Amino acid sequence: MVEVHDGPPMDGFSVPLRLHNLLLALAGRIDDSALTEARELIARAHIDEAVELTTGTLIAGKIPVSSSEQRELALVLEMSRSDATLANDLLVVEEDEPVLTHRFTGENQPEFGLAEALDRTLQVLPDVRSVHAVWRNTPAGSVPGALPQRVVLVEIGPEGNPPAVAFRVDTALRRAGIRSVVEVAGPGVARSAYHQAASSAASPVWVTGSTHSSDFRSEPVTPPPAPSPAPEPVKEQPSRHGLRPVSSGAHEPAEPIAPVVPIVQQAPAPATSSPDTALPRKSRAETRAERTADLTPAEVAQLRQALKEDPEKGREIATGKPSMHEVVELPALDLDDPSLSERDRALLRELHAELAERERAEAAKIRLNGASRSSGSSWS
Amino acid sequence: MDPDIEKSSHELLLRLAGRLPDQLLWRFRDWLGEGAMGTLARTLPRSLLKHRIDLDQTEYRLLVAGLIPHGADWHQVSSTLGVDDVTETRYTFTQSAPEWVNSVDSVSVLIHATLRGRPDVGEVRQSWRHLGVVGEGGAKRVLLVTALNGLPRLTGELQRVLRVLGDEEPGVEVLPPSIDLTGYHRTALANSELVCVGAVDTGSRLVAA
After folding, report:
1. Taking the model in full, what pTM does it have?
2. CB B27 to CB A56 under 8 A?
3. Contact A6, A190 (CB under 8 A)
4. What distance in Å separates the CA atoms of residue A1 and residue B26, rounded to the nearest whole number?
5. Residue A86 is nearest to which of B39, B50, B169, comparing CB atoms?
6. If you average pLDDT over every residue of chain B, what do you get?
7. What's the ipTM?
8. Chain A residues touching B38 at Cβ < 8 A
9. Where along chain B do its domains lie?
10. May I ask the CATH architecture of the domain B91-197?
11. Distance between CA A138 and CA B189 in Å, rounded?
């Protein structure tokens, strides 16, 4: 059972985001049509209909929820001026009910055709960090659809709006005749076991470019995004975000989104000068590290620094190995680096303060729970 | 569940075919089949109002009979009663399958395998629904089944089968033997083909085979 109150508390989220996060927790437990329709309703500002559809689907399907999920649904029902007593009809079970497991596979090209279908969408929507795809071979909910089901995992940064992205990506895929269910994760939201299992088998569709990347392959990449020891050298590819109109004149014009970007990109040779660091911050190309949901532009600046100092470590951070994600030791704060602007230095200081705070919080959580949660981990 | 309440709700949802959007209609029918009356009572009246679907007096009585006992909001229910005539459906129906259904129609085959000779089931027919001009835009399969008992549950079951076979918003019309058919169902039946017959000899078949 997914605990929706895992990770950051939901209190700080707006009502649409709270419902979106609930839907993330319910993915794999209710049918994909309900998920997709509810997300469209959220995006269209019909929160009441979205939460009624969600709650009704759970009730009619006798799908168990935890008491915290029930409370959250009741709250969203109330906040959207629906009948909160509807939540009383939910089937509530103990928290330690066995979790429904799903089977995912990255074989048979789940990413096929997606990059083309999403080309325009990914150019327009802000702060989309990555898109992955995977087949789910098991039915979801009490009224499941056809199998296998393509699950599209989208990761966005703080500037993106999860329900809006889910809706727009789904619309674009539908228009292209691609049936799928789209899961969009914003920063600071717990990833359920469902999403972790999906992402572990997922194939990349589109990933933001790298500082030192990237060699777009014309053919889809089928292997899951496990870091490979010796990736091919890649040429530079400016990211979409790097092309925003902030002193980016020195950069190449935007290239169309390629079908697939290699997940693992070669770190620069230590001796190679790193011109990117001298570029204005906004015009930098992004690294794959931005795919981790929590990385801010400041963290990326720090990561770039890390890459410069220790390519191997930087690459490990960038590839976001789940095992390393919880405690990442970034290089020491070097504010004397002449290649850093004043703004970069300020951001670095903030980053280090934030990392120290996170470490304290993580340590406290471990002390409380006896084990660290993976709530902050990336989908891939 | 009170059989009269169940019957009223089922008949109401039948009469909403072609008027309420498919994605809502199949879902409400699923909820009815699962006996989630409280959920239906709290959501259906509001959906009708939001989609500006007015009910005629017969339909209004069915809504009152089916959902007021389960806690439907009286003010919402009252607002659904329309004064003008119900507008006719925008759809046309054809008997023959569209070209994209390949020579082996596995859905028909599966429905045949499931319902042939089945107790309480009469005729099983199917028609293809088109929006606007036939041939332009998609065609949707509409299953027309006559049954004596357990109509909401049979609807839910067939919907689940069709969904697994790829129809996300299945059109399943399970009709009681004596019902005042809507224009939607009359047109669909007039342009339908027989899939199979259950164990019930309906005697007076809906459409001459």
Report:
1. 0.71
2. yes
3. yes
4. 28
5. B39
6. 91
7. 0.94
8. 59, 86, 89
9. 3-78, 91-197
10. 2-Layer Sandwich (3.30)
11. 36
